[in-house]
Each structure stands twice: as structure tokens, then as C-alpha cells.
What we know:
Elements: H1 5-10, E1 18-21, E2 25-29, E3 37-43, H2 58-75, E4 82-85, H3 89-92, E5 101-105
Antiparallel strand pairs: 1-2, 2-3, 3-5, 4-5
This protein binds adenosine monophosphate and zinc ion.
Protein name: Histidine triad (HIT) family protein
Pfam family, one: DcpS_C
GO molecular function, one term: catalytic activity
Amino acid sequence: MSECVFCKIVNKEIPSEIVYEDDKIIAFKDINPIAPVHVLFIPKNHIASLNDIDNENADVISHIFIKIREMVKELGISDEGYRVVSNCGALGGQTVDHIHFHLIGGRQFQWPPG
Ligand code: AMP
Ligand code: ZN
């Protein structure tokens, strides 16, 4: 989608600090981090939100979770704990309509998040 900011990151039309990339997904540092580790994992194909996951695109979503698992080990936060979040829709706090999974770690988080 030409106006989507995360599609622009995928297409290298705007810069980002990429920490992982392959043919299906890309992971980059959040521009406004809320924790010492704050990385966004996205599919390269435009999927708007959790509401759009189906059997056709489920593979890329599971691929993202396997890469998150590898990344937390690489970053050394696997044992101390971390959080993965996907905000969906207006009430869920989604501000970019290209599905993304926040990996946040390196500090204590509370529950409920507020
Ligand atoms: P959400 O509110 O769940 O939709 O999260 C969107 C996230 O994207 C926020 O944490 C923003 O800081 C982040 N973000 C927006 N634009 C960029 C960008 N150009 N590069 C990196 N992160 C971004
Ligand atoms: Zn997009």
C-alpha cells in the first residue's frame, strides 16, 4: 500500500534501523522506544491488523513468532522475560494500520497495561 508507513520501510523509501530481514518479514527498532529493547516485527506483505489473519497468511505470522523467539535469545533477554504486543484497532491503540508485533524487554512491565 503506497501510503502505508511500514510498507515504505519495507520498500526502503524511508529509513529504519533494521535488526532482521528476510524475504517475508522485517524487524526494525521502534522510533519511539518504550523500553531498552523495542523492536517491531512486520510481514513484508501488507496485512492491516490481527482482524485480517487467515489461513492464507498464517504462515508469515508463525514465521514472525519463530524469529521473535530467536531474537530474544540473541539479545539475551530470553530468560529474564519480555513482552510481545499487537494492538488492534482504535480501542486497542493501533496507530499504524500494517500489522506489527512489538517486542519489548529490558525492564519490568506491569499488568494490566492500562
Ligand atoms: P501501534 O500504536 O501499536 O500501532 O504502534 C505503532 C508503532 O510504530 C509506535 O510504537 C511508533 O513509535 C512506531 N513507529 C511509527 N513510525 C515509525 C517509523 N517510521 N519507524 C519506526 N517506528 C515507527
Ligand atoms: Zn503496509
